[in-house]
Amino acid sequence: MAKKHHPTPNLDQLEPGPWPSFVTGLKALSNKSEMIGDLLGQLEHSYQTKKGYWKGGTISVYGYGGGVIPRFSEVADKFPASREFHTLRIMPPAGMHYNTDILRKLADIWDRHGSGLIAFHGQSGDIMFQGARSESVQPAFDEFNALGFDMGGAGPSVRTSMSCVGSARCEHSCFNEARAHREVLNNFTDDLHRPALPYKFKFKFSGCPNDCMNSIQRADMAVIGTWRDDIQIDQAKVGEFIAEKGRNYVLDNVTSRCPTRCMSLNDDDTLTVDNHNCVHCMHCINVMTKALSPGKDRGVSVLVGGKRTLKIGDLFGSVIVPFMKLENAEDYERLTELGSEIIDFWAENGLEHERCGEMIERIGLENFLEGIGIEVDPAMVSQPRTNSFVRTDMWEEEAEKWNQRHTGEASA
Amino acid sequence: MNAQVSELVANDVTLATNEDGYLLDPLDWTPEVAIELARRDGLELTEDHWRILNFMRDYYEEHLIAADARFVIKYLATEGGYGRNARAELYRLFPYGYMQQTCKIAGMRRPRAWSTG
Ligand code: SF4
Ligand code: SF4
């Protein structure tokens, strides 16, 4: 099966070195896919001319407004086999769990209908099936769909979500990420597949403040696991850790790196945490995984407005729900409802191409909170004394209102 | 990328389109153009289609840009009386998507490429 290989002197330079190279992978694939052979040729051509040669287009599958990223080559005369190289975005299961049987079936479908090149997973959270001809898009999708998979998002819509592996494997997990992911996203299937929002909207779910999904920076609505009681300390394990690593190691790498200096190592080789001043940065827990763990009273914080640069620079999400439990069906329903409130308000008030966080910057957080029916809470701000956005001129009145609300809630 | 690479004949008039079949100049649009564009997509335009196309043309005349899908859906939900089923109605009529099909038949320029990130 000799296929035509283009010479790729520039790409070849990416092959040596200790790390796996995508060029080596593509070359191997090009032995059975002519499309990939020409793709390598076009990429080499791009490296030599320092220009990109892909242009977009409009391709979709029946009943869906998004999920296909069309790519047409502008140098198809030189590289005809890769003249159309569209990507299908398919949503992975929550937490990205697969068995090998499903992976084989996915790969087989893509060998039949596409180039064979699959990215697990793209930055958007989707499985990226790359390299389809226009006429293969619908039949490939139909087969993925029959396996139980659905299209991911593109365009001004709710996007494919991401959740960390969390409770399936990670001891830091503070909630059931996969369940939250499914329950919330299943509620927005239509918003995902039929774009009709001002711009994209991303949900991400991270099981603890390590935030492996980068949700603070990248999600319009981030759901991050946390706890509200004390860090759990197993003093016997602290002792074992010190016996193994030495006191200095703990002083240098744990206590002195606590950002709020709220830990101390006692003379009897036990640890004390001033939990009131702990900001849940996870550092000590990450270092002393056996001795320390998140508290027992676990739940999530919800942040809104994270995004990468566009109209204005990168934004981190702002905390709008400092803590909520996520245990029973009603809790999950509340989370989903909160998502709906936010999306509805933004769909109504966002400008074209304005992310939720940009809208909040424009109209003010206070107006946004009022719009989605959330009361301002001092716990939304971690350091009120040093935060320049905190105004104290109506402090007494606001404190009174807050007290009234809380006594009202307690007696209700 | 708005070079004419293709053309369209409707009502004996020849019009310039881009390679995906979108009109280069939305002002070229006439109902006959819509019928021809729809025919190419295998669609026969009914009264329900026309209601949407007319809304989009009015919107274009007023704002000189294509309406966002959300405005069309809102129009269908309120004035069309479809309520929460408005989006389903839009996709029943134009099953290959708002940008891909509705905008094209309504004579809009090809919308800018998807944000893919
Ligand atoms: S975010 Fe936390 S719970 Fe999730 S995988 Fe990362 S460390 Fe584990
Ligand atoms: S989680 Fe962070 S802030 Fe809290 S005690 Fe550990 S190191 Fe300090």
Task: Describe how the helices and strands are arranged.
The complex is a heterodimer of chains A (about 400) and B (about 120).
Chain A: H1 9-12, H2 22-30, H3 34-49, E1 54-55, E2 68-69, E3 72-73, E4 86-90, H4 100-113, E5 114-120, E6 127-132, H5 137-146, E7 162-163, H6 177-187, H7 189-193, E8 203-206, H8 215-218, E9 221-227, E10 232-233, H9 235-245, H10 247-253, E11 263-265, E12 271-273, H11 283-287, E13 292-293, E14 298-304, E15 318-324, H12 329-349, H13 356-363, H14 365-371, H15 395-411
Helix pairs in contact in A: 2-3, 4-5, 6-12
Chain B: E1 6-10, E2 13-17, H1 31-40, H2 47-63, H3 69-78, H4 86-93, H5 98-105
The complex binds iron/sulfur cluster (2 copies).
Structure description:
The complex is a heterodimer of chains A (412) and B (117). With 412 residues, chain A is an alpha+beta fold. In chain A, 36% of the residues lie in helices and 15% in strands. Chain A has 3 domains: 9-146, Alpha-Beta Plaits; 162-226 and 300-411, Sulfite Reductase Hemoprotein, domain 1 (2-Layer Sandwich); 232-293, Alpha-Beta Plaits, CATH 3.30.70. Chain A has a 5-stranded mixed sheet with strand order 7-8-9-14-15. In chain A, strands 2-4-6-5 form a 4-stranded antiparallel sheet, with helices on both faces. Chain A has a two-stranded antiparallel ribbon with strand order 1-3. In chain A, a hairpin with a 5-residue loop joins strand 11 (263-265) and strand 12. In chain A, helix 6 crosses helix 12 (329-349). Chain A is globular, with a radius of gyration of 25 Å. By secondary structure, chain B is mainly α. Chain B contains 5 helices and 2 strands. The longest helix of chain B has 17 residues, at 47-63. Chain B is globular. The mean pLDDT of chain B is 88. Chains A and B meet through loops of A and helix 3, helix 4 and helix 5 of B. One iron/sulfur cluster (SF4) binds at residues 164-166, 170, 172-173, 206-208, 210-212 of chain A.
